[in-house]
Amino acid sequence: MSKFLQEIKLDLNFIKSHTLQPKWYKVLKVFILLGFIAGYTAFFGWYKTAVFLVLFMFLSLLVHMLYRINTRKWTRTWLDFVVAEENGEIKAKSIGKFYYSAIIINAILSIIGSQCLG
Question: Backbone dihedral region of 73: left (phi > 0), alpha (psi from -120 to 50 degrees) or beta?
Fold first, then answer.
């Protein structure tokens, strides 16, 4: 269990420290997500929103793990995740069309799933 917690801490530290997105966008994403959830709940109810969230989080976890494994814990370039060395330190430089396409597909599949299962 201790190793599992260390791995979670590693990912959380990466998420907090990366410069792949501006800090203002990291904050804005929270409000975008909250607004979307509020609107989805208003239109479709709590049950379909809960199904959407479970599906979206699961699919996003799959994307996260796919990138984490293939980048060897954020230290190697893979697909659109680019890593470079700066001052002897490995830093993530960019992420792009494949990652964001996967997130959009996750959202669409989660919407479809929540409508079909709900």
Answer: left
CB 20 within 8 A of CB 90: no
3-state secondary structure of 45: helix
Do residues 107 and 40 lie in contact, with contact meaning Cβ atoms separated by under 8 Å? no
CA 117 to chain centre: 23
User: What gap in Å lies between CA 45 and CA 24, rounded to an integer?
Assistant: 30
Q: Is the pTM of this model over 0.90?
A: no
Q: For residue 104, give both structure tokens.
A: 């959009």
pLDDT digits (tens, 9 = 90+) for 35-52: 999 999 999 999 999 999
**Helix and strand element counts for the chain (H, E):** 3, 2
